[in-house]
Design brief:
This protein has nine helices and 13 strands. α5 crosses α9. The longest helix is centred in the last third of the chain and has 23 residues.
Length: 368
């Protein structure tokens, strides 16, 4: 599968899809730090600037176009100007690029606020444009917490297939949601007791559906070295990433800043408790780029490495040479911002694998 990526950021798609042998034809990004990162990690992949200037024939033909156009104009945290904001209008420019390149598949991502912006008319205009271009489509809100990372991150994913909505729907919707659990969310601050995989925490064996990032006994006792989400072992990391509690019997203090209770994550802006999961990472470093942690009587922000893990990237993936400085001098600010703008790697991995499964099934049917 050959794909083109626009609004590439730090390329969660490529991190998610490389294990399947998919190859990027081009990236497109205008922000300075992500551009430097892409050139550092993928020096052989053409890097385009403004994706609205890409024309048919500029790069190798693609089977799939992926992109998460800017979300600020649709987010409930912004002014919600929708398509009246130039950034929001890039949603339609994505469709215009699809018209020029005519890929078989489309994958588009944005915040859930796009569903209600301008009374839903903006999103309706986007879907209507895809239909006029001949794409059947399906869309679904996916939450990264259901894909192995300890972060609440709900995003709208649109999958389109040229001429066939059934294939798009087959990607995003399964007959059963096992092993993913898409049940209604729990009350904030309450414990989770899902009937899922078992893991050994400090208090013995207890069920868990999300990665334990505090208390790595399970990993150490089994000699797990590669703890990256793309590996074939559970995501259990060392004791320095306290983004959820390690004990299933913990009781959370309503005043997390007081130092009472266990280590939990909370919003750095209004200090509302988020419980066992980190709040959705934002790209605004002045507010809640990374959730804060209360541990004893001290409070700290999540480290960049912890934020990389929250998005499913390997440790220090964003630690690169930048603006004449070596990697060990790479500033944290651009790294936080890039991670806050990124898609979650595990979600993209699941979508890619579903597309590949549909492709394989179609090819087998045609052969028969």
């Amino acid at each position: 599968m050959k794909y083109g990526s626009v609004c590439s950021g730090i390329e969660a798609a490529t991190q998610a899809w490389h294990h399947m042998g998919w190859k990027p034809s081009f990236f497109s990004e205008i922000d300075a730090f992500p551009c430097a990162l892409l050139q550092h990690h993928y020096p052989k992949v053409p890097l385009h600037g403004d994706f609205t200037t890409i024309q048919d024939g500029d790069y190798e033909p693609i089977n799939l176009l992926v992109g998460g156009t800017p979300c600020q104009s649709f987010s409930v945290a912004g002014l919600r100007k929708g398509l009246d904001d130039p950034r929001g209008n890039l949603m339609l420019e994505y469709g215009a690029l699809a018209k020029r390149l005519s890929p078989e598949w489309l994958v588009w991502e944005n915040v859930p606020g796009v569903l209600s912006a301008n009374g839903g008319r903006d999103f309706g205009a986007f879907l209507g444009m895809l239909a006029e271009l001949g794409y059947g489509f399906a869309y679904r809100v996916l939450d990264a917490k259901n894909f192995g990372v300890p972060q609440r991150r709900r995003r709208v994913f649109v999958v389109g297939h040229l001429g066939d909505w059934k294939r798009a729907a087959a990607v995003l919707f399964e007959p059963e949601s096992v092993p993913r659990d898409f049940r209604a969310g729990r009350e904030e601050g309450k414990g989770v007791r899902p009937e899922s995989v078992g893991c050994a925490g400090r208090g013995g064996k207890w069920p868990a559906i999300i990665a334990s990032t505090l208390g790595a006994d399970y990993a150490r006792n089994r000699g797990i070295d590669n703890q990256h989400v793309n590996s074939n072992c559970p995501l259990f990391v060392a004791d320095n990433a306290a983004t959820i509690t390690a004990s299933p019997s913990s009781t959370y203090s309503p005043n997390v800043a007081s130092g009472q209770g266990d280590v939990i994550a909370f919003d750095a802006y209004n200090q509302s408790v988020t419980g066992q999961l980190s709040k959705t990472m934002a790209a605004r470093s002045d507010q809640d780029t990374a959730s804060c942690l209360s541990y004893g009587k001290s409070i700290r922000r999540l480290t960049v490495i912890e934020c990389e893990r929250l998005q499913g990237f390997s440790d220090n993936f964003t630690k690169i040479p930048y603006r004449g400085k070596t990697a060990d001098k790479c500033p944290d600010g651009p790294r936080y911002k890039a991670l806050g703008n990124s898609m979650a790697v595990p979600c993209m991995k699941w979508i890619g694998e579903r597309i590949q499964a549909v492709q394989d099934t179609t090819q087998a049917t045609n052969t028969d």
